[in-house]
Please model this.
Amino acid sequence: MTSTMWTAVVALSAAAFVANPRPGSAVAISPAVHPGGAPDTLVVNPRASSVHWAASGLGGSVTRQGTIGMGTGMFVIRHQQLTSGLFTVNMRQLDDELQGPELFDVAHNPTAWFSSTGMKRVASDRWELTGNLTIRGVTRPVIFLADVRWEELGHMIATSTFTIDRREWGIGTRGAGFVSDFSPWAIQLTITVDARRKQPAVATP
Model:
């Protein structure tokens, strides 16, 4: 996550999220039942989901980029409508020089996560997501657009690209301020989330 860009592909939101899990602790996710019918639970496939990052100003002036994998995640839909969700990111996959306390402090905060607080359809396959993004133990509100497509019933792929100001999370400096896509303080994320309907357990004779 050492980049000027943090492109987020998160067009899903499940009706279950944990507000502020402790750094390094497992994130518990449980689906919520909505009035008017039970929701469908979609579980993130870590092998098909990822976060690509790009940024400059992290240990030098050269733009750096990379891809790290997701951990757990769950999204909830009802009548093909996204409701809420959460996914985690394994920060231990960052380069060693980025894991130090002055940057991502991975020793104390091995997991980053996004938990939704709202979702709104703005076009046929596009959604506006609001939620909380937690990095190195610091939680800040974010808003971004995500494109969602259904490969088949119960199988969703969401993608999104947005930029954050790393100063808001205390990454490499203190303070906060306006950031543009060309600022050395910017991290651009590209997130891809692949989630499928949770299959019920099948009893064996």
